[in-house]
Amino acid sequence: MSAPVHLHRPSATSSALDEETARAELYGLLAQLFYAPPEPALWDALRVAVTEAPATGAFLQEPWQQLVATARAMERSAVVAEFDRLFGGVGKPEVMLYASHYLSGFLNEKPLVRLRDDLARLGLGRDDQMPETEDHIAYVCEVMRYLIAGDDMEVCNLRVQQAFFAAHLQGWTPALCNALQEHPAARFYAALARLAQAFFSVETQGFDLLD
């Protein structure tokens, strides 16, 4: 599943092992669900999804089951309303989805500048039609999906994934996931945050093994 966060460089189908494909698909799913309320086709697919972990490792089994169960218990209209309350509206959103907010306390700060510099080095760029800045959680998840599933081995390899993850995801996503899990109005997105937090923990452990 690809997210509506378009890079200038096209994505390619991964020929990697099943585990790598599953990693890429999960990053893509997180990107889609954090970017916008689920479209009907995605919502229907999620509600009938098998409740097996979408990536290797039993550690993801429970949060995946909880996400699917939450989707089955809710109407899509309620999830749309939840998304709008948490992330939309006039003025400051109740929960921020941008790295700069968590790393510096303000939007459009140095973390965004560093991210743009790294994206330029990778040969990637933001689609002009995308309203969000590049440090939005959906965008960085989509970049990770590309770094796993793309066919340019100069950038689509584990070492580049490790460096990008450490620089642009690892330091702030726990705070985002905690904010969602603690928010009284978050139900579907609290479940999504639990899955994201578990997945990022698995990713951190996996990258640590490379050192």
Automatic annotation (TrEMBL):
Top-level lineage group: Bacteria
TM region(s), chain numbering: none
The entry's keywords: Chaperone
Gene3D superfamilies: TorD-like (1.10.3480.10)
Pfam families named among the record's database cross-references: Nitrate_red_del
Alphabetical list of PANTHER family matching this protein: CHAPERONE PROTEIN YCDY (PTHR34227), DIMETHYL SULFOXIDE REDUCTASE CHAPERONE-RELATED (PTHR34227:SF1)
Protein name stated in the entry: Molecular chaperone TorD family protein
